[in-house]
Amino acid sequence: MTAPENTRDQAAADGQGPHGSEPLQPTPSHTVGPFYGYALPFPGGGDVAPANAADTVTVHGYVRDGSGAPVPDALIELWQADADGGLAGAPGSMRRDPVDGGHLGRNGVDFTGFARVPTDADGHWTARTVKPGARPGHPPYISVCVFARGLLHHLFTRVYFPEDTRAHTDDPLLASLDAERRETLLATAEGATGSYRFDIRLQGEKETVFLDFHR
Amino acid sequence: MPLTQRDIDREVAELREAYEASRAAGAPAVHHPARDYAPYRSSALRHPHRPLVPVEPDPETVELHGPVFGPTDVTDIDHDLTRQHTGEPLGERITVSGRLLDRAGRPVRGQLIELWQANASGRYAHLRDQHPAPLDPNFTGVGRTLTGDDGSYSFTTVKPGAYPWRNHENAWRPAHIHFSLFGTAFTQRLVTQMYFPGDPLFAHDPILQSVTDERARQALVAAYDHELSRSEWSLGYRWDIVLDGPSATWIEEGRP
Ligand SMILES: [Fe+2]
């Protein structure tokens, strides 16, 4: 066993951090690769809205690479507040059947706040959810984590909603961006009520704004 | 001209030397791979050109919280990949155990760990994997578990085989297991791969070598632990995982 491992074990045995010393080095990220498809996606992964939810919204879009080609092997995860802005979440996103080990789908009542959707052959993904409530100092937004073959370290971005124009002026992130870049974080309202388009461009023209929380 | 292993090895060495020179000049350690890593050819069109935009998290930031999972999300045998079919899979039976921690060394409790892997012959149970190695009707290669109160986890499986891929001519991935991990905050989300000690393919693999920091690379390699081997049953490997990223606790208590 190497020295770093020992340090890590000692810190954990104490049940607390190594006070006064360096934080543990994080385990490095790697690409999700091409073959996650039989392991990570689950039935109903994009159906976050409980069955009885009054106002469901559909958020969907394409993932494209630096040449504009669709990315058919990306995995999109969403995490968001409930309609009242609560972030407690709930277990049961990938509820299982203890009889045959299959998937039961969500229980139709609890709001887990979590979606996981692989892109299809067109590079397209869809989630059916409820619009998140605002948090103090923040307009409503859905947090997005993007994984893909070829992407060595996942990327975070956010879906903001176009109708919250006034609240957007107070949002520290949106306020820090010029108009062209800010636009990449705003979903587009579509004809159908409650339908929003949000494309993710990994590179190049209209490249999506990706976020760093590690400062 | 087809791209050879020698071409890739040279690019890997150049990038590693550049990193080591930056360290010698006082630059901080870089733990994660650069998204723009030319030796891994698929990264070319799939990394942003623009720098990431820093977000100063406050306690109301959605990403400082994260999804939760519970006993309904796993079945009792999900952590044992050798028991998911009527027969036993072929291969070397192993256990992989360790702990899930944050950077302050605190255990991450009750969170979901998912893993997936090739079978002992190096083939995934995925339609698009056409490597001409046999599928195993008794092995799917998918596992899940929830971490214990001390952040511990344990999986029983078989050791995956190395497999070829098309990054360059005669490219082979070292044996590895893919892991997906959740912390208490969405910022701590991690997908990575665990390797087995002493694999001769390490030096030739642009994915492992994308982690240019030697110590960080070592953190992806499990340790063989004889204490974890079970007599006449399985070989034991130990691998602890440390999640990066701020969490609500991190904001409340200050940086670790
Ligand atoms: Fe793999």
UniProtKB/TrEMBL annotation, chain B:
Pfam families linked:
Dioxygenase_C (PF00775), PCDO_beta_N (PF12391)
**Keyword Oxidoreductase, does the record have it?**
yes
GO BP term, pick one: 3,4-dihydroxybenzoate catabolic process
Query: Which keywords describe this protein according to UniProt?
Result: Dioxygenase, Oxidoreductase
List each copy of the Intradiol ring-cleavage dioxygenases domain by range: 96-124
Query: What GO MF annotations does this protein's record show?
Result: ferric iron binding; protocatechuate 3,4-dioxygenase activity
Presence of keyword Oxidoreductase: yes
InterPro entries from the xrefs?
Answer: Intradiol_dOase_C, Intradiol_dOase_core, Intradiol_RC_Dioxygenase, PCDO_beta_N, Protocat_dOase_b
Database matches in PANTHER family: DIOXYGENASE, PUTATIVE (AFU_ORTHOLOGUE AFUA_2G02910)-RELATED (PTHR33711), INTRADIOL RING-CLEAVAGE DIOXYGENASES DOMAIN-CONTAINING PROTEIN (PTHR33711:SF10)
Family, according to the entry, reads as follows: Belongs to the intradiol ring-cleavage dioxygenase family.
**Could you identify this protein by its name?**
Protocatechuate 3,4-dioxygenase
Give the species this sequence originates from: Streptomyces nanshensis
